[in-house]
């Protein structure tokens, strides 16, 4: 695994942990990487009070992480040291850290487990179904990010140029995103059907490496609205740009947020980028 891929995946995992802590308010978030010998290692964390769990190696089938890997299912534990559904090889480390309730969810890319996403609290609070659902949604988003990264590297490497394998930096991506949004807006002004279809095809080509994994169906108009939002337009500005009413823009946004499970317009933009609807 090359250094650039490691950096990209580490960045994606760190972003997932940060987003999870922000969205749930749960203080501890961790990621356990599945090693080649089927053991887990806690490689990234946020909110740990002690080094007890940092870089911890977890044997196959052991603890909550081992159970998640073995069953490929999410597991929620309300009182770790008394839980009957897991083994207890790591009770001392859990007690040293002071964790009480833990939820763990597998991260699976192309049918292979890549790791386990954890959240935990230090107080005797039960983490219910809503938390499990939130962690699961974050795991799915991380899976998309890891899969998209692999697809982009594969597409870049297949070009056979001297830049094979190069990943665009943040500034370059922002330029692509801005160009995509502006191209979508320009397409709306074209009355010639044939030319408009050609421009729409160009827009699709800008997200081709990830479009194959796009399972949530967004309409062309919904993507246009998101493109406006990505440029920072208000509903009124988007309506003027698209030649429709502001209430219609709101309707499209509500539909998009429902489909993507987003709570704000900016969450919707980020979710659309994760599934490849926007670059």
Automatic annotation (TrEMBL):
Keywords: DNA-binding, Transcription, Transcription regulation. GO terms for biological process: regulation of DNA-templated transcription. SMART domains: GAF (SM00065), HTH_LUXR (SM00421). The keyword Transcription applies. This is Helix-turn-helix transcriptional regulator. It holds the Pfam family GerE. GO terms for molecular function: DNA binding. Gene3D superfamilies: 3.30.450.40, Winged helix-like DNA-binding domain superfamily/Winged helix DNA-binding domain. It comes from Corynebacterium liangguodongii. SUPFAM superfamilies: C-terminal effector domain of the bipartite response regulators, GAF domain-like. PROSITE patterns: HTH_LUXR_2. InterPro entries: GAF, GAF-like_dom_sf, HTH-type_RamA-like, Sig_transdc_resp-reg_C-effctor, Tscrpt_reg_LuxR_C, WH-like_DNA-bd_sf. The keyword Mitochondrion does not apply.
């Amino acid at each position: 695994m090359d250094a650039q891929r490691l950096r990209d995946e580490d960045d994606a995992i760190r972003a997932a942990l940060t987003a999870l802590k922000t969205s749930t308010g749960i203080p501890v978030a961790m990621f356990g990487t599945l090693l080649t010998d089927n053991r887990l290692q806690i490689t990234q964390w946020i909110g740990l009070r002690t080094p007890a769990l940092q870089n911890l190696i977890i044997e196959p089938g052991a603890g909550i992480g081992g159970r998640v890997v073995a069953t490929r299912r999410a597991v929620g534990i309300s009182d770790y040291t008394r839980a009957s559904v897991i083994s207890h090889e790591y009770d001392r480390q859990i007690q040293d850290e002071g964790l009480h309730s833990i939820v763990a969810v597998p991260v699976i890319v192309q049918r292979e487990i890549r790791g386990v996403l954890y959240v935990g609290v230090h107080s005797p609070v039960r983490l219910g179904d809503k938390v499990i659902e939130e962690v699961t949604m974050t795991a799915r988003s991380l899976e998309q990010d890891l899969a998209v990264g692999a697809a982009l590297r594969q597409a870049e490497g297949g070009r056979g140029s001297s830049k094979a394998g190069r990943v665009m930096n943040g500034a370059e991506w922002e330029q692509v995103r801005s160009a995509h949004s502006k191209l979508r807006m320009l397409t709306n002004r074209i009355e010639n059907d044939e030319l408009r279809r050609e421009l729409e095809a160009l827009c699709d080509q800008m997200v081709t490496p990830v479009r194959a994994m796009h399972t949530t169906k967004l309409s062309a108009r919904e993507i246009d609205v998101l493109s406006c939002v990505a440029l920072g337009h208000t509903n009124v500005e988007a309506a003027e740009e698209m030649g429709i009413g502001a209430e219609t823009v709101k309707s499209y946004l509500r539909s998009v947020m429902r489909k993507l499970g987003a709570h704000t317009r900016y969450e919707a933009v980020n979710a659309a980028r994760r599934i490849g609807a926007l670059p």
